[in-house]
Write a structure and sequence with these properties.
alpha+beta, SH3 type barrels, OB fold (Dihydrolipoamide Acetyltransferase, E2P), 8-stranded mixed sheet, 21 strands
């Protein structure tokens, strides 16, 4: 992807961030010989990013195949894929195909996304990692990894889990385990008013259910969103839930932690007998088909998609990434020709309205009426830097707009402990 594809974006992003046109004309004194159009655009972009922290949106299909350059401006690799967390949509790793500069013989390797940066003006990723850094902090990917993506998604092959076994979030100790094991329990029955996936605890996005029960509205902490959403019977807004929860008391009040749900004679356990979450490696031995936390971006693009009312009514045509936070922001939904007579428009949907099931399919939390109101996805993803455009998309789904800056800063918030 070359820089000329991005030059027309500077003005739209600057205006969306509230920058006056006079500021764009001369963000800082121009140096002799730096009056070419490309340099002016680049300086305007850099000025805007620094002064106004504009968000940067790109299509995943555009980013895959992009060059990765080192500090010397040499192309050392190309982006072959991304590995993201199922629930939050946060990109954990970038799969690079190494170039001749690295001397790895064109092998594929996984590098933490936080070690690369995307320059929207030049249309390239950059990194200050040396060959030694990459050898120490990266993992080589199996040669046939592209053939394994479907198996990895469905759990038939665990190369993704093996690849990141040392630091995988599902292997972290659960500080709530003993508290849940010893806590008093109660039943909560009622309608799920909301299934929120915006609480960051211990580096993971947790899902909280808001339930209208006989004793009023109650909040139930279900578990990491990647795990909860990966269940075939994941709780959804509008569902009736019959839940057993552990009541954890502290000086700041009490919280309800989901232990299990009952529906149609079937019990779905969220916590093991010792109180630990079943997403935790130590308590998953009795789990027949545990959801996978990590997913390949290339598997999501082109995946079949359905809604709460209909199955297989379209596909995920593309994915929009906010590159500075490394998080999926929106997906482009391509409806089938016979679905509600929608035609050929690609619909824009917030990632928070999409769920990846335990199979290789996506599910959109929207009724047919909502689907008919969906705005179209702009051809240029940079247009989504407009707060009003993003607000219009989220409003259709009755969701609060994602705060990508908050996502970056709060992802490190420690998990609250029982009694604290």
């Amino acid at each position: 992807m070359q820089s000329h594809l991005h030059m027309n974006r500077v003005l739209s992003i600057a205006l969306a961030a509230g920058v006056a046109t006079t500021a764009l004309a001369s963000p800082e004194p121009m140096q002799p010989g730096a009056h070419d159009k490309a340099t002016q655009h680049k300086q305007a972009r850099e000025y805007d990013r620094e002064a106004h922290k504009a968000l940067a949106f790109e299509r995943a299909s555009d980013l895959i195949g992009t060059e990765v350059q080192n500090a010397q401006g040499e192309t050392i690799a190309t982006i072959e894929d991304f590995i993201f967390e199922r629930g939050s949509g946060r990109i954990e790793q970038a799969v690079l195909r190494s170039g001749t500069v690295l001397g790895f013989g064109g092998k594929a390797l996984a590098v933490p996304y936080t070690r690369i940066n995307f320059d929207a003006t030049d249309g390239v990723f950059s990194t200050n990692m040396t060959k030694a850094n990459i050898e120490n902090s990266s993992r080589f990917v199996p040669e046939n990894w592209g053939e394994l993506d479907r198996q990895a998604w469905t759990g038939g092959d665990d190369w993704l889990g093996d690849l990141f076994e040392e630091d995988d979030a599902d292997a972290r100790p659960d500080p709530w385990a003993s508290a849940v094991r010893d806590a008093q329990t109660k039943e909560i029955k009622g309608e799920i008013l909301a299934a929120r996936r915006n609480d960051w605890i211990d580096g993971q996005e947790y899902m909280t259910l808001v339930v209208a029960g006989k004793n009023g509205t109650e909040h139930v902490i279900a578990g990491p969103s990647w795990y909860v959403l990966g269940l075939e019977d994941a709780p959804e807004r509008g569902d009736t839930i019959n839940a057993k929860v552990a009541v954890l008391s502290s000086d700041n009040g009490s919280r309800n932690v989901l232990v299990e749900t009952m529906a149609d004679g079937r019990v779905t356990k969220y916590r093991a007998a010792d109180g630990s979450g079943r997403w935790n490696t130590a308590s998953s031995s009795d789990h027949a088909n545990p959801p996978r936390r990590l997913v390949l971006m290339s598997s999501l693009i082109g995946a079949e998609a359905g809604t709460v009312a209909s199955q297989n009514v379209g596909e995920i045509q593309d994915v929009v990434i906010e590159t500075s936070s490394g998080r999926i922001a929106f997906v482009g939904f391509d409806p089938n020709e016979n679905f509600l007579g929608m035609g050929d428009d690609i619909l824009a949907m917030p990632w928070d309205a999409v769920n990846l099931t335990g199979s290789d399919k996506a599910r959109v939390y929207a009724s047919d009426a909502v689907m008919q109101q969906c705005p179209t996805l702009p051809d240029d993803a940079a247009d989504l830097s407009s707060p009003q455009m993003r607000q219009d998309i989220y409003k259709v789904f009755n969701l609060e707009p994602a705060n990508f800056d908050r996502t970056r800063s709060s992802a490190r918030k420690p998990m609250p402990k029982h009694g604290g």
